[in-house]
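S.,

Sequence below, as promised.
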Amino acid sequence: MTSKLKVEQIAHTNNVSAMTIDSTGRVNLPQLIAFTAYANSNSSVNVSVGSKLPYDVAIINKGNGYNTSTYVFTAPVAGVYWFSYSAWCNQTSTGRTGFYKNSTAYGRSDYPIGTRHHASGYQNDSASSAIELAANDTVDIRAYSSSVDVFGTNYFSGYLIG
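The prediction came back faster than expected:
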């Protein structure tokens, strides 16, 4: 026996659409939570240990969870989110960047999930991780073992998996 749900729209009782399916089967999720932000700098910016990397321009900010002034994502709803970031670094010493959840290193306290770059000039730090969040939990990217000089082409992205 097979079951079929034949609907074009799934909505909350307050009539806010949660999902639409068109006649070809394409699904649209109008309440999707997703963001991508980048650093709007063409020159090197020094980020001290414990400070947030400056992703100050949002290309997309569905759900309005990302704040371009504080460089912090705040979860509008509870769930598992997927995050990734990139940070071009110009270093004369070894440095590290990583994810912070609610202002605490995510993963090991001495080495949060993130990446390490060597003291050899321009290198790209990048990492991705699934992070479970309660509503109003926060995620940001920070320098954590030495200051880093970041410049241009950096991004921070995230979206709700479910």
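The domain at 32-160 is CATH 2.60.120.40 (Jelly Rolls).

Coffee later?
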